[in-house]
Every structure is written in structure tokens, then in C-alpha cells.
Give the backbone structure.
Amino acid sequence: MIFRMLFSQLVEYYEKIEATTSRIEMTNLLVELLKKSPQEVIDKIVYLTIGEIYPPFIGIELGVADKLALRAVKLVSGQSEKLVKEEYGKLGDIGLVGEKLLQRRSQITLHMKELTVQEVYQSLEKIAKTTGEGAMDTKVQILVGLLSSATPKEAKYILRIVTGKLRLGIADMTILDALAILYGGGKEARELFERAYNITSDIGYVAKIAVSEGLEGIKNVKITIGRPIRPMLAERLSSAEEILSKMGGVCIAEYKYDGERMQIHKKGNEVIIFSRRQENITSQYPDVVKIVKEGITADTAILECEAVAIDRETGDVLPFQELMHRKRKHEIDKAVEEYPVSLYFFDVLYVDGKDLTLQPLEERRRILEQIVKISDRVNLSKAIITDNSLELERFFHEAVELGCEGLVVKSLGREAIYRAGARGWLWIKYKRDYKSEMIDTVDLVVVGAFHGRGRRSGKYGALLMAAYDPERDVFPSVCKVGSGFTDEDLEKLPMILDQYKIAHRHARVETGMEAEIWFEPKLVLEIIGAEITLSPIHRAGWNLIKEDTGLAIRFPRFTGRYRFDKAPEDATTIKELLDMYNSQLKKIVETPIS
Ligand code: ATP
């Protein structure tokens, strides 16, 4: 027996759902619809109802432009382009335009075959999968074929779905409610359905299991390589004391790297990378695939990391915006070369057949340490365990200064499982409320240096820079700068600085950083940065804003100007730095993303 459902039946429900303003009634209608949905097509019905045809990780989208869909409406309705455009201008909804114009269709549609859900779905699938040369024309043709067999009401919904504008107001969570009512005996069973969904990210699959295997099937849903797990998310607080007390007095704090979250699935030689939104982004990151094959020793694993753009020359982390260069479809090899990334692993959810999501974080981190082979490009997130709020705050300032967003502070208790798909208090993000943008350059004195690695080996990799404090006649450090130097600068600097080399830190230099080479404070360079931040490492303005804290420059770079005309005592003073910090201090306004 073939179980089918007419598309007109589905449309009837869409009409009712669209008409209701009550959330309860909407869920009830959905329950009724799912109850009538045959096992064979329930997943497809679910995808269509949320306006999709696949779960997000498949990476195939309909996304037909309105213009293209209007072409199909014109062809099927036999109306002029002018009229179609006019109607679109008036109604503003491609669905309504199609519905109205198809009512005026000239052919007799008496013997029109009734469309099934399966047929509509298959056509939409074909439209989505058509790519390459002439794809647009082929898409229009398929749509024309589909609309020719559709009633005006059906056309309304087909057009909305195909252009990504269904907007019934039904999301994955509404479907879960309905499934829990239908197959779990009530909303109480919702948690089980939610877990099945959270570890598969596939609402259609969950619906299919529910209808075919019932509650037992739902309980048995397992993590699978290739299906992304929905991410655990953090709550937010902005003081170290509050965070520690919320964590019960002790926590593990990790740098919050500012890059792209990746969930990496590895099975033998196969690697898949999913984004925070469960899209498959593997093709954008062939370098990450390679790094993972070499850097993860487990055969099968699901891990989470933050991929951060790094400076090709220095290996320093770069601002998040730099990663945007990797969001492209063409010339990927070039982007890989120009914008390399480092991975900072912070969690492991599955290893060699074992689901670790219900294990406490301490255990997961222990396993993570065993399977991650640290290298230039592969690291674990930097972490400390602490019960001291001052230490936590210090670690926070250090993270910000080094280019991170702040910290993710995590619970260490037995209850600290990986709560897939949930934002909760087991993780708390600690970010800045204020930031001080740097708009002017400063003139700083070179007081130390660090040996270069890789392309810079044998030269200086970075310089330690200081400002001037005229009151105490000392040079407190402000930043370590590695960016902005040309090849010519790198050749020239050792030649200039050699004459100032000394065996240890100069008596007038104050810093919390241990340079590898020290200099007499002589050479002045012009530096610009993104922000002035608080720092536990650098000594400029020490204790002036906060106890045990100085000022530092975040993302510093050399502008190219050697200030041979300036004596070290002419360098930017502490007071000037403080004024710059205070005058630009602004509250950070966040744009929330769900
Ligand atoms: P945000 O925009 O602040 O990153 P979000 O909603 O994406 O917010 P949150 O749960 O608020 O996510 O913050 C956690 C995010 O921080 C993760 O999604 C991940 O991308 C990033 N991150 C960076 N470092 C870590 C880390 N060590 N542990 C966990 N998450 C980290």
C-alpha cells in the first residue's frame, strides 16, 4: 500500500495555521496535521512546514529569487509581464500574486491531476539541486511544471516555499511540542524529544523516528558522525565575583577566542566541519581538514573548537573580521594561503563510539588533552582552574589584551555535562562592558625583542614597546608588536638595534613581560592599535585605573614611521595614554544573535 497525502490537504492546514493568532491553536493544528501525515512523508511535511526541504547541515537551499518565480507565474498564468509586475508591486507577496493570477488562468483545468506532497517535494528538490550553466532556466521550467498542476491556493504556498518566504511562524521548537503531545503522551515528554533533536539537528528525522518507532525510538536516538550536535551556549555576567559565586566558588576559565565556532566530525580520513548554525562549511576550510587529520589522534571523534585568523608572519591572533575573507566560494586556496587559521579546541563530545555529552567537563577535557596533538596550528583553549576572583579578573584582562573577547567560565561540578542546544549557567561568558577605541597613533620606545619563528627566523619576531613616565623618569611597557613590519624593516631593525643591546632589562624599564633580548630605551617607533585595554602584564598607568592593572594596546601594528627625530623622553607619556583611554571609553552595545 502506498501512503500518500494530497498537497491540498497540507495547504488546508497552512491556511488554518496562517489564520490563527493563538499559539495553542497553532500547536493543536500542527498536532492534527502530523497525526494525519503518513510515515513515508512525515519528514518532508515537517521540512516544508518550516519552509525548508532539508535540515541545515545538508547545505542545499531553495532560495529562488522572487524575480525568477515571477517569470514562472507569468508563463503559467499567460498574463503580461507588466501586469505581473504591477500586481507584485501592489501585493508585495509572491504567493498572493500567484494565487490571484492563476485564478485567471485561461486553460480548462477540469481534469487536472491532484498534486501529492511527495510530488511537490520532489519538484522542489529538483529546483534546489539544479546548478551550473542554464540552471536558472531549468529552475523556472520545473516551477512552471509544478504550478501548472497546482490550484491557485496550492500555488500560493508553493511560491512562498520556493522563495524562502513561507513564514507560518512554525519553528523547530513548535514541531517538538507537537511531537511530544502526539507520541510522548504530553508536553512532559518534551525533554526526550528535545534531546533527540539536539543531538541530531534534524527535526524531520526526529518526526520520522517518532511516527515509526514511538517514544522508545526517540529515547534510543544516538549521536552520529555526520549529523551536527546543536551547540551548548553560555549565559553572561560581567563581574568576576558574580561569576565565581554563581559557579559555587570554583571554576575553569578559558580564553574566549574571537573566531568561528566549529564542530568537527572525524571518521578515519573523513572530516566534516559544521558551523555554529549547523551548516556544513567543510569546503571553506581545506586547511582545517588537513590540520584535523594530523592533529587529532582519535579515529572517530566529534570535537569543538574556535578557528581564529592568525597573522601569517607572527602567528598572533587577529581580529574576528579577518576571518570574513574565508567566507568565499571561489579561490579558496588563495584565501587559505593569505588568511591562515589556528584551532583552539575546547570540547569533545564523542570519541570512538562513546557519547561523552553526559560526562562532566573535567572528564571531557582530560580526554581532549589525550587526543589533541598540539602544534603550531592546533591548541587547547588556554584555561585555568581558580577559586579567586582577582585571579579570574587578571586572566580576563590578559585574554582581552591578547585579542580574545574575554573568557568563557565553566562549571567544574559533576553536573557540568554538555547541554546540547541549551543556553545555561554551566557556561558563563565574561566580556567587556566598555571599550576604548584607539584613533591616534602613539610614539613608543623599543625596550626588548623576541626571536622570530618560521619565515622570520633569524630576525626579530616582535618588539616590546614602552611609553614614557616623566614624573618617575621610567619607561613602562605598553605592548608587544609584531605586525606592520615589511621585509625591509625586518632586515633593518637588527642593524639599528644591535648597538643598544644589553644583557638584562634596563633599570628604567618596567614590564611584566620577559623579553628574549633587551635594549637600552633609544629607538622610537610610531604604533597604532585597535583599542587601549586594561592589562595585567603591561605597566603603563599601573594602578592608576585599577589595582594591579596597567594599560596596553590591543592589536598593535607598526605604521612604518621610524621616529629618529624623537628622543626616548619624547615618546607618548602615561598621561597622554590615560587621556586617550578615558576620552574614547564607550559602552559596548551588543547586537544579539539567537
Ligand atoms: P557570542 O557572540 O558571544 O560568541 P554566542 O551566542 O555565539 O555568543 P555564547 O554561548 O554566548 O555563543 O558564547 C560562547 C561562544 O564563544 C561559542 O559559541 C564559541 O564560538 C565561542 N568560544 C570561544 N572560545 C570558547 C571556549 N573556550 N569555550 C567555549 N566557547 C568558546
Summary: The first helix runs from residue 7 to 19. The mean pLDDT is 94.
